[in-house]
Amino acid sequence: MLRRPRPTDSEADLLREQEQFLTSGAPSAANVVRRPDKRRGEAGGEGGEQNGENGEGPRDVVTIEDLPDQLPSLTPAPPKKSRFKASRVTFEAEDAQERLDRHDTHISAVLSRIVERDTSSTPISLPALTGMAFPKVLHRSETSSQVPLSAAAGKKSIFARHIAAQRLKEGKTPLHCAPEAAQIPGHREQSPPPETSMDTDQCDASENLSGSRLVSGQGLEGSDGSAETMRIHRENQAKLQAMSQGEILQEQKKLLTQLDPRLVEFVRSRKAQSVPSSASPSKQPRGRSSEGNFPLVSVSRESDSSSAAALSQKHQEVEMEGEEEEEEMPPPPAVMEEDLPVKPQREWVHMNKLEPEKLEWMRDLPAPRRKGTKKAMQARFDFAGTLIPPTQDLPTHLGLHHHGEEPERAGYSLQELFLLSRSQLIQQRSLALSTLANILSKARAGEYVSVLKGSVMSTLLDAGLIFLLRFGLDDGVEGVMSAAVHALKALLVCAEDEECLDCTFSWFRGLASFPLLPSAQEEEDEEDEGLPDIMKETAKEKEERKSDHDVARQDVVKGLLKMKLLPRLRYILEVVRPSPRVVQNVLEILTRIARHSSSSATQVLDCPRLMETVMSEFLPTSWTAPSSPLPPSVYGLPLGTAMKLLRVLATSGRHVCARLLNSLGARERLSCLLSAEPSELLLDPTEALRITTEAFRLWAVAAGYGQACKLYIDLYPSLAKALQSVHRVLVPSDPLLPLQLQRLLALLSLLTQVTHTAGCHQELQAGMVSSQGEECPPPPPVSWGHVTGLQASLLGHLKGFVRSLDDPVQRESSLAVIPAYLVYLEAYYYQLSRQNCFKPVETLQELELLTSEVLLPLLSHHVVQDLVKNLKSSSVVCNVKSSHLGPETIPSLPGLACPGWRDRLGLVVPSSPFPLLTGLGLLLETITGIHKGLSCKFTGLLLSEPVIGYLRSCSQATPTLSHTRAWLLRHEHHLLYLLLRLAHRLVPIDPEVAKHASLYHQVALVLLPWLLPGSEFLAHELLSTIIFSKDFISEGHSGGPEAVELGELKLQEETHHHTSPSLQTVGALLREACVQLPSIRGCFLTHLAHLEPAVLTSRDVLLGRNPWINSHLLPELTGPTLPSDWHFLPLVSLYERAGVSDGGGLAVEELPQGALQAVSHCLQWLLLLEVWREEALKVIPPVAKLARLSCVFLCSSDLFLERPVQKLTWGLFRLLTRRSRLDSLDLNVPPPGLASFQDLYSALLTQYEAVSFGDRLFGCWVLLPLQRRYSATMRLAVFGEHVGMLRSLGVTLDQLAVPIERFTSPPEDSLPLLRLYFRSLVTGTLKPCWCPVLYVVALSHVNSFIFSQDAAAQEVEAARHSMLRKIYYLTDEALRNHLLLFRLPQRHSELGFDTYDQLPPIRAKRLESVLRKQDSSDDKGD
Fold first, then answer.
1. What is the Cα gyration radius of the chain?
2. Which of 653, 788, 1075, 1141 is the most buried (most CB within 10 A)?
3. How far apart are CA 1257 and CA 376, in angstroms?
């Protein structure tokens, strides 16, 4: 066996192996075959040898035997069948290999015949000889001497064009170039306008000479195929030259309509391949072409499919704008070279192909114009965030113009700013983020509300602003990071909101605030449906499963915390150590996060090294005086913003406050900052006042928990010194007077909280002794003896400020501090009355002196009287529109909506009387409780015209609840409660005040469901004292029930019927209800017992029991303390306890003990309100009242049959069905808490069938929703599913309080219901003796239907005829007469309706025509 050669074999080895192969005679693996060259017309066999003899050597052809004839298919497919195979002539003796070689065009044929290219006739061009040793180096600047690109065939390299240029200089023709005539611009022919030519290119002289682009001549036999092609092309050109432009356009349209669009697309694509897309020198516009001048506008009429589509789209856009605009502007002229400020030079790289669309930006900008349409335009902003009007023409040197979608308009859109914020250029990122920060600040201020459509903040957040800013915080460049911090501060923090909260800190309970949590949105997870509660995911697990985007979409702050914002802020403060402005922004961001919730505040406190960095760097215990008022770095200096952060953190809970004081060293900071005067702190005077003010506030918050009281004993000399210098510090001409006032108010708040804490010392001491090991808070270190010495000094201050009200210069500052003094005095006297050392006689004399010397002069002062006149205008309750939810307040980032608060009326402005009246009312509540004889001295306050007018407005108001209003509503609720408490003391003893008792009661009724979380104690006090007080329901003992009885008698005389025979009148029921008021109060307090923990917590807070307070952060704002329909609470709770099963029956058959009495008391209270306090129930929709009262029938099988319940429910039913109330009763609206009224009605029908026993009251209740104007679904339920109840629904027309016309008019149009009416009548299910009301209703509607003359559908008309025929042939003579002779419902008739004596002519004619049609159809059938 022969061996294959190896790589290690030498040449001798190879020769030896070759000799062995030849001698062995073995067949070779590859054969060398000489094949004819078909391109040169050679024949096979001998011709090949002759050619070889002529000097041309044979060419090698390599054949590979193992190569498969057909390549394997990549994807399986069915074998293809040839349509021409059957028509081919084949011979049996023909060699298959030869046939394959002759016909095969597969790629295997190419691979099997690798043929050398014939290069015998190809000329070889050598480089031109020069005198230099090496060829000259080619420079790009010499491209001007090269042959133009379009002159050469196709795209050539720079070297090839250089060689061609040299040949031109030597007088030679470059290889593969078009003839010279094609390069001479003068040979061009004049072209028609561009819009008149399609694809003819008749103006292209070069094409005229070079031939057609479409007709190639391929497939023509003979050697003169190219000549034939040119002849055809010249004929086409001659025909086109002989045609006019109109004829060319006509033929063009004809071709476009006749040819297949795909064929037209193919022709254009062929032409696009042969013509370069850019303009060549041979296609310059006539009159613009000159030597050395490149064209800037291409007028070529050829365009590929993509450019044509773009042009058509652009044209459509222009047309749409033209339709919308009032004035159509001409299109901008094409860009010419002279229009450019910089002329392009031939030597510039790549400027031989100028692109006009890219040179547009070099032109002068057109003047901005506003579209003459109402269509909204894109908002653009300058770098300060100011909205730029679309008509404003700003100079370009401001840097606001750019190459965007609207280059003529200055400014940046939000999309462009987002794009720039992710730029690679540092300056662009920083500028974009700074601009976004300014836009956010102005959006929060509401500057875009009137000029922009939609919310800027919502748009930015939806676009992903949170992630953009979070990425910006991670930027390594400090400038970009600082801009991101500024933008984040602008998004989260509103300076006006913080100012308002600081201003109200010294008010009653002003240190407490609501958490700024978004409104809770319950999202039922589909995965949890049907699972037991123990297997459902907790809220925390669902939160962890959500993505950052989903969390941020619902709660911005929570989303930022999930994105690890706190560690990044710590890194910025600790490592980056940025500028003072960035430090202030970071501290304000942390403060806003701490206001979010107690959990967020805990996260701030638990973030590693964050609070340690704040304490060590911005609240040091020692520092050096700054060199300038604006130091370059604030590290090592105490900052008021950092102290405020501690105060807000401490507000979230007593444990957080204790950690701040003890673990982080806040106690030492307080001692360091407050032991000296502000002027001695080595700080700027402004910053010194700010930080000491915040230090006092932090101390007040801590004292509100009973903490840091030891510090009070240590710093008592400094506090006494500060109190002594009050009048010396408050100089009207001092520019720092506002800061001095804030510092004094913070000091008074501190003393108030310390007084409350000291007042609890005695109680805690006694509790510790009696607790005997039980858990009890330890007594604070400060006792009552430590605070008694302050009262005299502060009372002297108050008298001085009251006297200074006469001085116009000091008036404003006096009005600012007097409320805080009044709040302090209330705390002092309240805690004094609870001490063992309390001396009643001395205290009463002291209170009389206080009243005569301070309170009465203050109340009667003209300044205070003028202030009280602003009560109504400053109210939040009475002015719902004054603080509406603005468009820039978004649900995921709630705020207080305080921007511009100084420029409008409100609770916080200096002209508001609320802080003064609240402090005064608080003090009066306390001193009149100690000295009851002082109450009558303040009747003037309650009887003053501004107060009465304010209370009347409140009784008719319906305020909405939101974060923007809640923090102010809480303070207004305090004032309303205190006014009612004063009225509670005065109504029994003062006849003048008693005249307005009903007004005070009305205000108490509307205030109760307004009270917010944290005010449960106020709700309990109102329920216990005023709501159910006989003194405030004056109608009960001043002839009110008798007046109601007279009104009922008069109504009965007018209508001549009794709606509820043998039952007591409403007047008697009211009289009994007034007697039962104490029991009614006990009933409602019993059903509100579940609020007891919240009431006790609220009591500790409002009464100043500081050691028992766990947090100054109020409960989450989920809604009011009591629902608006709390009046139905006993009834609804009984229904929920009894329950209704799925089948409609009762789940619990026996009622709980005392249920009958509770339901009776609830119905008595509702009856009393419906008659005398109708305004208090207006917030409850009538459909909700009906739904709640339906529980009387659903919660038991026999409760509605009890005599007391029957009487009260009849009375309420008659009140709800008065003519004035029926129109407002809309059962198509779902009642609150129910999906629809139809579901409740279905349960009522089931209950009626089961347990009604034909009760008339239950029957009236069931009939009420069957009025014609309500949904037909309920009537279908009665006559369909519950048709059996018609036998026992025996309510008569006299007993029904609703006019029968409301059931019969307008005529029924539901065909299924009409068929049910007819069936129930014909089958005897509905009879007048069983169900009089619905019998009349069904008669009326069926009669109207069968005799209706209105045009209707064929199905309806057929139903009419069918019913009429069936009625005519009825065997029941009475029913037939009722149906045919029915006229009108009549309440006092024996049957309940009137009938005709005989059939009216029109009805008789109708009946006759229907019967005649039936007879004719019967005849045809026969």
1. 49
2. 653
3. 60
